[in-house]
Amino acid sequence: MRGNGEAMPKHEAMPKHKAAVRKVLDRVKADKRSALTAPEGKLICEAYGISVPKEGLATSAAAAAKLARKIGFPVVLKIVSPDILHKTEAGGVIVGVKTPQEAQKAYRTIVANAKKYNRKAKIEGVQVQQMVGGGQEVIVGAVTDPSFGKLVAFGMGGILVEVLKDVTFRLAPVTRDEALGMLDGIKAAEILKGVRGGEAINRAALAGLIENVAKLIADFPEIVEMDLNPIFASKKGAVAADVRIILDWKPPLQRYRPSQDEILRAMNRIMRPKSVAVIGASAEDGKIGNSVMKNLINGGYQGQIVPIHPSAGEIMGRKAYKSVKDVPGEIDVAVFCIPAKFVAGALIEVGEKKIPGAVLIPSGFAETGNVAGQKEIQEIGRKYNVRLMGPNIYGYYYTPMNLCATFCTPYDYKGAAALSSQSGGIGMAIIGFSRSAKMGVSAIVGLGNKCDLDEDDLLTFFEQDDNTQVIAMHLEDLKDGRSFAEVAKRVSKKKPVVVLKAGRTAAGAKAAGSHTGALAGNDKIYDDILRQSGVIRAPGLRDMLDYARGLQKLPTPKGENVVIITGAGGSGVLLSDACVDYGLNLMKMPADLDQAFRKFIPPFGAAGNPVDITGGQPPSTYANTIRLGLEEPRIHAIILGYWHTIITPPMVFAKVVVEVVEELRAKGIDKPIVASLAGDVEVEQAAEHLYDHGIPSYAYSTEIPVAVLGAKYRWARGAGLVK
Amino acid sequence: MRGNGEAMPKHEAMPKHKAAVRKVLDRVKADKRSALTAPEGKLICEAYGISVPKEGLATSAAAAAKLARKIGFPVVLKIVSPDILHKTEAGGVIVGVKTPQEAQKAYRTIVANAKKYNRKAKIEGVQVQQMVGGGQEVIVGAVTDPSFGKLVAFGMGGILVEVLKDVTFRLAPVTRDEALGMLDGIKAAEILKGVRGGEAINRAALAGLIENVAKLIADFPEIVEMDLNPIFASKKGAVAADVRIILDWKPPLQRYRPSQDEILRAMNRIMRPKSVAVIGASAEDGKIGNSVMKNLINGGYQGQIVPIHPSAGEIMGRKAYKSVKDVPGEIDVAVFCIPAKFVAGALIEVGEKKIPGAVLIPSGFAETGNVAGQKEIQEIGRKYNVRLMGPNIYGYYYTPMNLCATFCTPYDYKGAAALSSQSGGIGMAIIGFSRSAKMGVSAIVGLGNKCDLDEDDLLTFFEQDDNTQVIAMHLEDLKDGRSFAEVAKRVSKKKPVVVLKAGRTAAGAKAAGSHTGALAGNDKIYDDILRQSGVIRAPGLRDMLDYARGLQKLPTPKGENVVIITGAGGSGVLLSDACVDYGLNLMKMPADLDQAFRKFIPPFGAAGNPVDITGGQPPSTYANTIRLGLEEPRIHAIILGYWHTIITPPMVFAKVVVEVVEELRAKGIDKPIVASLAGDVEVEQAAEHLYDHGIPSYAYSTEIPVAVLGAKYRWARGAGLVK
Question: Which of A333, A426, B233, B642 could potentially form a cystine with B570 if both were Cys, beta carbons 3.0 to 4.6 Å apart?
Fold first, then answer.
């Protein structure tokens, strides 16, 4: 049996621990059972180094005493008899046995009681078991999620935690560091460190146990749910007092997973096409095929545009063809603007023409109940190796190519944010907000029913797309959450990935056979796995849009020290509140720096942090304190609070800030700055001016600018760019 | 001794329970102690019907057995000897005594052990005590807050709750219903109801205990902190196993509290003056005294405006006077536009002229360290009975009188929201947002240093001001939180009161002597008491502004059934998420109503709730479904999700919605409706049109409209207007 916290050997050829589990599972399978008995569960745990109470069978009082001494006191003695089901009722259990003498006596008592209870009972002996308890009760478990696959769970034990649902999930398997991170991932984490005189638990032992459970469930697909509950975690180690394992013999669905290279090859042709075919192109106003043609042409796309139409010789000045197969030369992407019933036929032609991508605007598939129709086109796509976007989408934009393959209107404000949405309505909100707020956009993509192309395909493309610096995605589900998590984990190291997960509160709960299953509210899993993948989760639509707009403007902070410089004491207080809400660290102002700030502000102003320059100050006070903040290497990010006064009107403030920031950028100093503007309506224009110059700024809000900076920090921490 | 859950008698002349406590406290005071001994604590608890373990002293084995039988088994026996401090060490404690025989034996063992331990020890006997335990461990305590005074606290016991800070506070004393509400006011509330086979506790007993603790601390100002920890709450009752009481003999500060009538008399003259004096009026551009004069005149105030100036004969066409004392006739309010150092002198003249209100714009008082100067004017105000607004403020607006007594600019969009701010910066943000969003405003008031006029004075005025329908206040502290809570509780029954409490995260924690004190993070107290007072707490500045703008538009809902009608399925999902976040109840759609909605939507659209009318629908589908929602009495509020399409463009949607809503308003049906608009930039104008017609609507956000409706519901529930 392996000890606490000892990891599994990693490179054994035919590892013994796997063979031991396989042997148990084979027997269970032969029995056509889906649940393991307690002894079977213990065997499996022991094979994977998961500590369970030590135990043995004694057939004499002397043997019981010897065994108990070997196990270590205190022990529990229990009758073992196939004829006695209710051991306690039969007087067949004695707990808290503390000496060899007591063990001998307990053995005799138990056997006598058992005989008295049922004189015909066949008595196999008495089980002597290590008595566990003390320390902290915790629970480790496993579930199988339809999207994420095998997940390991950790939480505190006891009913209180059950009520508070204080549990955390990770994709299995996990590294030791991830397992240790789980111990800090619950609200009650402090308890494990020992509070109020309680002893700290052995973290290595508990993390090792989690690691081993995760390895076990990853190694054996048929183990679908598991509970170790309770586990007694103490200074000495972590012992699982009870084990529950549920099996499912149906093999898990295999998902279509092209290699990253294959994805990239197709995505690069789809997103940066040299030639676009419009299937169902039309010269008739109001038709989707007309809107798409217009948008491609008016948007300024410089590649070849090929209308496909059953009869027209040319459409909008471009030569038209009956079929893509008639078009000479390569086509990179075909945009479908035809009714659902014609899609399958045209898609076969697209496949035969070896076009790598089909953009399926038409609705009328799974979303209207036409599941068979969707399956049909999915199979055609797979057969011909055509990647499918949609169906049921508005199309897509890729601004570096001036490409607008949608029935909406061309988007005109280029920049570094790539956005996607699963829903058309949300896509329209993205387009409207982006235009209204002049958000710099590289791409907007509709994913719709996601019969093929998914968020992870987009991530793979945007990862290597130099025109994209931040990726923001609205999604309602992930067809393959595990694949998304893997890709997102890699991509988010390079570029911020923001996710708005809709349907947070839809139960999504399938009937769960285990305790862990019951604790696994669908959203909690998304929340944990997205965080584990380095993704910034946006709480709402507007937040996602604000993050996408702001994150591309802010440079990456080099450290955690945030300073607030404010003309309004009242804003300073609210900005400080927001810093706590969004996980920002208000720098404790060193005495020398405090002195340096004080030189610029009135004697009754407060240095410290916030630096309160007071309300009636001229532009120079803002300039001086901001310059100091930027030049000082101990300060890593600045939050400005502006108060509208006659002495420093809004646009004067905005211009002076931009001046100082640009002066220092020219010297190679570029720190994240955001601003909150309090004042009459003129502050709106000032905020816009600041935003245009790389300083995310908001009128009448002390929360949004801090939320944007907070998102940047969350990303930078996850990517290991700031400690 | 009073039993569990038995309330105190209420109208005793010289109540015995008070006398008993007074006797104990007098003895402690005579001893110059500030903490009570355990027996003293028990005496006090018993006097107030707070159950503590039963106990008695036995001086023979037979007496111990008799006493134990009377108390009820199990019991604990403990040696009582002034010479034995470490009872356990001396073998002087035996727990779990279950029969009279065991009690006799335990008595003899303890006495023998004690004699063996110290043969000279004077043995007074053996204490026989009820053994408590089992059920749920909870804590009840009390603290004294500098602003709110006596507070009673309730939480779960054990370290887990300590880590999670799961505790709730109420102003003491509390009613039985409030005490019962506290049991539901913690996150782990479910546990008390019995989960996973656990027994429900006796709620009446525990609530009774809380009620009695609250009464005790309210009756005795010198009891400043109290811990009953742990209390064992079970099916049988609630017994406090340990009592800790801390006293402070300094009498609490008495605050100036004019009667509501006095407040109203002054406030009505200040807010609706017939005559305003401007002390420091000036003809010179850029001076505050000039801005105030201009704003009064240009704002269209029709009352008398009297400039006060040391030498000028007239200012801006109005006859000027050297002193308010020279002005013939009554003056209602004097606006100060002079430097701090001249304020005291001028204020005496204001007092002598019997002007009821002084608006102190000047800064240079406590906020710059001039505490003495502030105290001086405070005393003058009190002496002459002049109510003071400020100092250190921008002034105030009261739009029904076209009154703009500020150095800002006149506000032009009249309506029903009264706002106040403690900070000038936040005041400017209020003015800017209100103007930009065309928020209907009745008043904007700066409170600044609050040396006298406070939020509760404003509440008292706005309560009876027919021009005001919603009150929104930014505040950093409450000088007299108890008074605010009392007034807010009354006012919020009539009009929504929104509070943005800044400085949430400032520790504000004074060194606490008790466990309860340590749990009382300042913000948690604000949060609980504001909720208890029926106040809607805004999480941030923009939320406060959105609530103030939206709440005045929405009629009060008549029930909890909310229905979402959406053209975009994606918006429907996000709107549903938001409903959960903001505590709205998505109606479970009855079959007949489902059928009725289905008549208007395509077969693949989803009725149920959200009602998904699907994206490509004409205006009539919106009109028909919204009309049905409004006409149907089982539906109480509607959330609209709009998706921009060519078939129903934004303004067409907005106009059709307004048409239907107005058609039904004309028939006497007026339900709260909010809307979320997803689309290109034209949706902004559509949202504005909807807002102008009483339908709070937001482009590119699914959260804000639901938050506004959620705030209306929170208010309506607190005011008892919706069940």
Answer: A426
Neighbouring CB atoms inside 10 A of B522's CB total: 20
pLDDT reported for residue A236:
87
Residue B286, Cβ density class (10 Å: 0-12 exposed, 13-18 middle, ≥19 buried): exposed
Structure-block tokens of residue B49: 């019907």
Query: From start to end of A184-266, where are the E strands?
Result: 223-233, 238-240, 243-247
CA distance B537 to B702: 20
- Contact A701/B541, CB-based, under 8 Å? yes
Give the integer Cα–Cα distance in Å for B604 and B609. Answer: 15
Whole-number pLDDT of residue A313: 94
Q: For residue range B121-134, what is the model confidence (pLDDT) as tens digits?
A: 899 899 999 988 77
- Residue B505's pLDDT is 62
Q: How many residues does chain B have?
A: 723
Q: Specify the domain boundaries for CATH 3.30.1490.20 within chain B.
A: 55-130
Beta strand pairing call for B275-279 and B304-308: parallel
- Where in B490-555 does DSSP place strands (E)? 497-501, 536-537
* A568 contact B CB<8A: yes
Q: Is B424 on the interface with A (CB under 8 A)?
A: yes
B436 at the A interface (CB within 8 A)?
yes
Q: 3-state SS of B300-312?
A: CCCCEEEEECCCC
CB contact under 8 A, A700 and B164: no
pLDDT digits (tens, 9 = 90+) for B12-57: 456 899 999 999 999 999 999 888 888 899 999 999 999 999 989 9
**pLDDT tens digits, residue range A132-160?**
877 888 999 999 998 999 999 999 887 76
**The model's pTM:** 0.92
Q: What is the CATH number of domain A555-718?
A: 3.40.50.261
Rounded distance, CA B41 to CA B227, Å? 10
User: CB of B18 within 8 Å of any CB in chain A?
Assistant: no
Beta bridge partners of residue B137, listed in sequence order: B232
How is domain B16-50+134-247 classified at the CATH fold level? D-amino Acid Aminotransferase; Chain A, domain 1 (3.30.470)
Task: Round to whole Å and give the CA distance between B209 and B233.
Answer: 10
Chain region(s) in chain A for CATH 3.40.50.261: 555-718
Residue B408 φ/ψ, nearest 5 degrees = -85, -140
In DSSP terms, B372 is beta-bridged to none
How far B62 CA sits from the closest chain A CA (Å)? 32
Topology classification of domain B411-552: Rossmann fold (3.40.50)
As annotated, the residues of chain A forming the CATH 3.40.50.720 domain(s) are: 255-392
Q: CATH 3.40.30.10: does it fit domain A255-392?
A: no
CA dist., res. B52 & res. B485, Å (int)? 33
| Residues B547 and B474 sit within 8 Å (Cβ to Cβ) | no
Q: Which part of chain B has CATH 3.40.50.720?
A: 259-391
| Cβ contacts of B441 on chain A, cutoff 8 Å | none
Q: Which residues does chain B have within 8 Å of residue A435's beta carbon, measured at their own beta carbons?
A: 680-681
The pLDDT, as a whole number, for residue A146 is 87
Average pLDDT over residues A392-419: 94
How big is the CA angle at A435 (ends A429 and A438), to the nearest 5 degrees? 130
Confidence grade of residue A201 (pLDDT, cut at 50, 70, 90): very high
Give CATH 3.30.470.20 domain extents, chain B. 16-50+134-247
Element spanning B125, H or E: strand B125-130
Give bridge partners of residue B474 from the DSSP assignment: B421, B500
- Say how far apart CA A698 and CA B473 lie, in whole Å: 21
Report chain A's mean pLDDT, rounded to a whole number.
92
Structure tokens at B514: 């008790």
Which CATH number does A55-130 carry?
A: 3.30.1490.20
| Architecture per CATH, B259-391 | 3-Layer(aba) Sandwich (3.40)
